[in-house]
Design a protein that fits this description.
Strand 1 (about 100-110) and strand 2 (about 115-125) form a beta hairpin. The chain has nine helices and five strands. The protein has about 300 residues and is of the alpha/beta class.
């Protein structure tokens, strides 16, 4: 008996879901291997515990990426099997000259006990101010880059101008339809790099928040992690001087430009705030039309 049309569509959807998961995972896998150069593919599987890919298939895929020999990392270009075209790198050899000109973003992981969480940061390329961030349980778009970008939009709502370059790596979250719908609505110019060093500013922010702040806290659970990320971002924005900013903090530097009114960053004070708005740990997903959600995100949602 031949396979039915419904069966074909089911197979295709399953394949697409697996490839989407891989595109989410690849950047995290590379980060783990950089932190743990001798870790095996199997150990990484149990660290991450991906939901939609089995252990053997995960190991085979890791080896295809060049992780078979644990002492050597293959720096090959990131490729995607989803038929998605990578955005042009708009910031290569580019130096911003004002705030709200270029935003850089990246996703990293943070481990609490045996559970992985995923941190997303968005930083203004001129002032080094972290304008948006999120803490997610999973790597999907609605748990990572989407809430971080909504926060950035809310924080910059008065001075958000068309044409801001949004630069990222080639992770699947950054070409997901629901994310691109949002960048299109607010007229961002999407930009992507092929290699990690081409997104160095965002990677440095990851390192600063993790190594200078979070790793020095005794974080026992998700709630504590969210509070510590809130605290760390506030300390970074308001108290940490930067040599490149004439030894001013990002907040003081922006105020000195007389371009931004002082605003209090929106804080995610509870897990309920994330789940109710973005579905980070709930099966309920953000509505497909981001415009329909724009009014529901206010400071009150994060209390």
């Amino acid at each position: 008996m031949g396979i039915t049309r419904q069966g074909v569509h089911k197979q295709i959807n399953g394949y697409m879901k697996e490839e989407e998961t891989k595109s989410y995972l690849e950047v995290i896998i590379r980060q783990i291997r950089m932190d743990h150069p001798t870790i095996s593919c199997r150990a990484m599987y149990y660290m991450i515990n991906p939901e939609s890919i089995g252990r053997d298939k995960f190991e085979s895929w890791c080896k295809e990426l060049g992780f078979r020999h644990i002492h050597k990392i293959n720096r090959m270009k990131t490729t995607h099997s989803l038929g998605v075209q990578r955005f042009e790198n708009l910031v290569l050899n580019y130096r911003p000259t004002r705030i709200n000109e270029v935003y850089y973003s990246d996703i990293t992981y943070f481990r609490v006990g045996n559970q992985f969480f995923y941190l997303t940061f968005i930083v203004d390329g001129f002032s080094r101010y972290i304008v948006g961030y999120s803490v997610g349980r999973t790597l999907d778009t609605q748990s990572t880059v989407l809430p971080a970008l909504w926060m950035a939009i809310k924080n910059r709502r008065i001075h958000l101008i068309p044409g801001i370059i949004f630069h990222s790596d080639g992770g699947g979250q950054y070409f997901a339809k629901i994310f691109l719908d949002l960048t299109r609505k607010y007229q961002f110019k999407n930009s992507m790099c092929e290699y990690a060093y081409e997104n160095g500013m965002a990677e440095r922010i990851n390192g600063v928040i993790k190594n200078n702040y979070l790793n020095h806290r005794n974080i026992k659970n998700e709630s504590e992690l969210i509070k510590e990320v809130d605290r760390s971002v506030t300390l970074y924005n308001t108290q940490k001087p930067h040599k490149s900013l004439k030894n001013m903090t990002p907040e003081k530097f922006e105020k000195s430009l007389f371009l931004l009114q002082p605003t209090q960053p929106i804080m995610m004070k509870s897990l309920e705030a994330i789940t109710s708005i973005f579905g980070a740990s709930s099966p309920k997903k953000l509505r497909a039309n981001p415009a329909s959600n724009s009014e529901c995100i206010s400071a009150n949602n994060f209390e």
